[in-house]
Amino acid sequence: MNQIKHIHILGICGTFMGGIAAIAKQAGYRVTGCDANVYPPMSTQLEAQGIDLIAGFGVEQLELNPDIYVIGNVVTRGNPLMEAILDRNLPYVSGPQWLAETLLRDKWVLAVAGTHGKTTTSSMLAWILEHAGLNPGFLIGGVPENFGISARITDLPFFVIEADEYDTAFFDKRSKFVHYRPRTAILNNLEFDHADIFADLAAIETQFHHLVRTVPGNGLIVANGREESLARVLQRGCWTPVETFGSPAASGWHINDDNLVTLDGVAQGTLHWELLGEHNRMNALAALAAARHAGVPVALGLEALGQFKNVKRRMEVKGVAGGITVYDDFAHHPTAIDTTLAGLRHKVGSARILAVLEPRSNTMKLGVMKAALPGSLKDADRVFCYAGNLGWDAAAALAPLGDQAVVSDNLDALIAAITAEARPGDHVLVMSNGGFGGIHGKLLNKLQP
Q1: In what order do the strands lie in the sheet with 6-10?
Q2: How sure is the predictor about 326, in pLDDT bands with cuts at 50, 70 and 90?
Q3: DSSP 233-287
Q4: The CATH fold of domain 6-94
Q5: What is the mean pLDDT of residues 164-187?
């Protein structure tokens, strides 16, 4: 065990850094931390684990005298505590680097990378390993319903991590995932996103190739065979066996319309589960392939997925009021919006879908994806878009939808418009990567007959 025993985490209430805090505490470290806003649910989870939290980044925190400061990527130059750490030449490290060097060094890391589906696929993979008795550790950017927690560490070798391509810290602009040194790596998909840090798709492909360079020759890369971008990444150089899923070729992993899973044309078993959408079928193939590399037979993996309960905020039913079902989903990129709506359409048939959208991610706020929005919403009967704090004209972007779309920068007005439109039998799908002003509860209250 590393001799550093007290860590102080700057930016502790984010999902990733909060997860690091939790597993560091489980591993025997003294953990303290601070954030601009110490807020639930993360603050509640951390305090329940005996982690002391401080609101703000005041320089008086230097008096804690930790062995090292662990820095989250929300921290920037100009942050008063960070400036004091730099001025005094105190030891600091990024969250991903500390995690990798301290807690993951001797683990069999299974990393799940991709623009979409990281949280769900990581949760599936962790659950398959758990079901197989392998007791994995994990750090996931959501709460898998099968576990009820987002992070844990165990004494066994396997560790599943949601491998984010976002940058590591203000002093390390590489993607987080280059630190993890996985033995098993899933490349789930790759599209342009994070326009605030990447100039174009090629820049993201370069980061993915940095990840590919770290996977050992006796490891495995599980890659989406439908993605030209991932093919380009692997063509730059690959020193590891690759298994593809969903590719047009007969080889690799496939799943048919009856959920029969095949590997290189050989039937492996049938997937029986409740999840919706082609994207989740692809996520399942990736998880099965990665788990097989860790020694889990496919039949056992399929059995586990039959008991998979998904992740909070992934087509999660928040309630039914007046015969109207309200869902919460994390979708915020046009591709995710499209696949989420397609999955719900498959489930509800001809029933009406009211799509409620908050373009909240940095990429969406910049308007980079606005031209793709109307097409991504094609499976909705009505569209309601919250335009607060946007730097572009959402009404103009959604104009191709005509009267089908309602845009408002006033949340109360938007809620009123939704409740006026909704009728028994409708499905209201709320999509945002934030809290969206508690819109789910407000809608359910107003929809009560």
Answers
A1: 52-55, 30-35, 6-10, 68-71, 92-94
A2: very high
A3: HHHT---S-EEEES-SSSSSEEE-TT-EEEETTEEEEE------SHHHHHHHHHH
A4: Rossmann fold (3.40.50)
A5: 95
Instruction: State how far the Cα of 424 lies from the Cα of 121, in Å rounded to an integer.
Output: 34
DSSP 190: -
Which position has the token pair 């190739």?
Answer: 209
Instruction: Indicate the pLDDT class of residue 299, thresholds 50, 70 and 90.
Output: very high
Please tell me the CATH code under which domain 104-305 is placed: 3.40.1190.10
Q: What is the pTM of this model?
A: 0.78
Three-state DSSP state, 297: coil
Q: Which fold has domain 316-447?
A: Protein-Tyrosine Phosphatase; Chain A (3.90.190)
What residues contact 272, with CB distance under 8 A and at least 6 apart? 259, 302, 306
The single residue listed with the structure tokens 């006026």 is 420
Cβ(418)–Cβ(443) below 8 Å: yes
**What token pair was written down for 28?**
């025997």
Q: CB 444: neighbour CB atoms within 10 A?
A: 18
The closest alpha carbon to 219, from 239, 236, 234, 244, belongs to 239
Which residues pair with residue 35 across a beta bridge?
55
Which residues are CB-contacts of 196 (< 8 A; sequence separation ≥ 6)? 362, 363, 366
Q: Where, residue-wise, is CATH 3.40.1190.10 in the chain?
A: 104-305
Structure-token pair, residue 257 = 């319309």
